[in-house]
Amino acid sequence: MNKFKIEQDNNRGRKVIATEECRKGQLLFQEESFVSIPLESFLQDNKYCYLCCAPNVSGTIVNTATVADQTTPAPQSTFIQCNYGCSMYFCGSDCANDMTHQLECSFVNKFIQSALDFNCDISMSLLGLRTIIKNKLDEEKYKQTVGNLSVQKDNFIKNNKAIIDRYYQLIDVIIDQLVKENTAENILSIFNREEYTNVICSIMINSFAGISNDFRRLPISNGFFYQAALLNHNCEPNSLFFIQKNVLQMVAVQDVKPGQQLLDCYTDLLTPTLERQKNLIKSKNFVCDCSRCTSPTENDRFFSSIECVFCSFTQGNNSNATDANNTSKYYVSPKVIYNWETQSFSTTWRCNNRSCSGQANSREIMSLVQQVDSFHELLNNKELLTVDSNTIDPYGQFLKQLSKFESGILNKLHPNHYCCLLYNLRLSKVYEYLTSTADSLEYLLWSVSHYKEVSRIVESVIRHPSSEAIDSFYHLGRISEKCLLSLIHQRNAFTDQEMIDRLNVEIKKYLELIATSYQKSSDLATICYGDSNTKSMLLKELSLKSNMNKLSL
After folding, report:
1. Nearest residue to 4 (alpha-carbon basis) of 470, 15, 356, 325
2. Could you tell me the pLDDT band of residue 85, with boundaries at 50, 70 and 90?
């Protein structure tokens, strides 16, 4: 981190300050984790290495020579299974025979069982084990890196006592078992309940999640990194990180001037202020006071804003929010406050029209808020959103219930509202799925329309280059390719020249949309991940191919 210096901060403990100018897209630093581990759902299969979290290349890979969702056979897997007792999978003999794993191996199944018994996260429990084992192997490195990070155990217990109590129970049972088994003293000394729970607290506060590299944004791993953990949080960050295997790279997504603080985001930027704050107080023990969080409209994003029921519809007023039709409306938005004494949040809903006759948190406003909550609950209803090949009338109940909100509260939300984002995201996937059950161009057209809106909202809410925008534009290009193929198939079935000409006009529009979407995704990926990243190279190929297709028409 020679481009930066660490300074003390009265509020945050420390901060990282740039000592030289860093340009958008510049790699700020990279580091290997002290320890990493796959998340619980990937632990006992062969998708990710149990030690370094390298992905298994077996199965299928994207073939960029054809449309984006076609695949070709990938190289045969080189993953091997541990033969010493834990049965975990590794990317090769180097990881399988690593000294850290050699020492942890005989304890892995004990920790898994104890984690199950006390409802602890298995991956977190094993990462704690791996950390204390590696600490014994390289104590100096531990002290100089992750062992030097803030634990905040007292605050963590205050906010998450039930969680940490379960980990106390887990380690107590492990120690009791080892004592009963007459474990050698030098081995038994590795396991200390306070040290283990301190490590668990530190991991929960300071660790970083790795995301799948396949445009699905699946959390796949958890890594304990030191340098990245030094960066303070802000919901208007100037940097982002991505993780490949057990290596984290931090990249500037805005220009950073000398003397400016380097800021990361610890939470999901596509959630509203109240949800971000709840997540931060629970997982990181602080409340964010950035400009986005302290602004009821989230710095004019209007991500939680609802049309004011008291203000009349007006035209051309530049002091209020503008909706998707470029007309003006007044909106009520929530001011979120955390009470440290009661440890609870409160929201005060007010209109952005200073002349509004309505009172804050009036009965009429709160009635709308309740409708939004019900809408949000439906959009997250896993039961209604889970279908398979045996499902009768897939998504039928979901679409039926959704129609009630489409004719009601949906029209009262700002177009950037987080429920609008979820609504369009859900329907883009629903209609894409339905094309597999009924070969309907109409479903594809609807899916494209919703993907367009998802991409627009993502860019409106996250105003810097982001992985979320990369994936949104990729999916818009991908589903548009499906629509293009369907249009070409229809055109080729016609003999009427007038109809062929009409379809050619539509085909040209979709070729343009595909090229624009992939180009946008590729440009953003180059900034966020660099030119040599696998995802960046794939998107560049897709962009070049789509531009060639556009020019060939």
Report:
1. 15
2. confident
- Both 42 and 190 in a single domain? yes
Extended strands (E) in 289-409: 306-307, 321-322, 328-329, 331-339, 344-351
* Shared-domain flag, residues 87 and 206: yes
Same domain, 199 and 305: no
Among 57-66, 70-79, 323-332, 333-342, where is mean pLDDT lowest?
Answer: 57-66
Assigned domain for 401 exists: no
* Angle (deg, nearest 10), helices 534-552 and 497-529: 150
Are 165 and 240 part of one and the same domain? no
Which two tokens mark 114? Answer: 């104890």
Q: How far apart are CA 17 and CA 230, in angstroms?
A: 11
Pair 97, 239 in one domain? no
Measured over the CA atoms of residue 170, residue 176, residue 178 and residue 184, the dihedral's sign is positive
Longest dimension (CA), the chain: 87
Asked if residue 529 belongs to a domain, the reply is yes
Region 26-35 average pLDDT:
97
Shared domain check, 530 and 466: yes
**CA 112, CA 126: separation in Å to the nearest integer?**
8
Same domain, 243 and 279: no
84-111 burial, b at 16+ Cβ within 10 Å, e below that, comes to eebebbbbeeebbebebbebbbebbebb
Do 484 and 350 reside in the same domain of the chain? no
Total of domains in the chain: 4
Q: Look at residue 387 and tell me if it is in a domain.
A: no
Q: What are phi and psi of 345, to 5 degrees?
A: -100, 150
Residues facing residue 337 across a β-bridge: 346
Residue 521 sits in a domain of what CATH number?
Answer: 1.25.40
How many CB atoms lie under 10 A from the CB of residue 518?
28
Predicted structure pTM score:
0.91
pLDDT, tens digit (0-9, with 9 covering 90-100), for 436-462? 887 789 999 999 999 999 999 999 999
- The answer to whether residue 385 is domain-embedded is no
The H or E element spanning position 161 is: helix 153-180
Indicate whether 76 pLDDT > 70. Answer: no
Q: Encoding tokens for residue 335?
A: 């001011």
Q: Is the pLDDT of residue 65 over 60?
A: no
CATH code of the domain covering residue 251: 2.170.270.10
- Measured torsion, CA atoms of residues 352, 356, 361, 363, in degrees rounded to the nearest 10: -140
157: amino acid identity, one letter: I
Residues 6+ apart with CB under 8 A from 278: 345
Query: Count H helices, E strands: the chain?
Result: 17, 19
- The pLDDT score that the predictor gives to residue 105 is 97
Output the CA–CA distances (angstroms, integers) from residue 513 to 162, 439, 463, 506, in the order listed. 51, 22, 22, 11
| Structural domain harbouring 316 | 273-364
Measure Cα distances from 66 to 57, 71, 110, 474, 506 in Å.
20, 9, 48, 15, 21
**CA atoms within 13 Å, Cβ hemisphere of 10:** 0
Question: What is the pLDDT, as a whole number, of residue 150?
Answer: 85
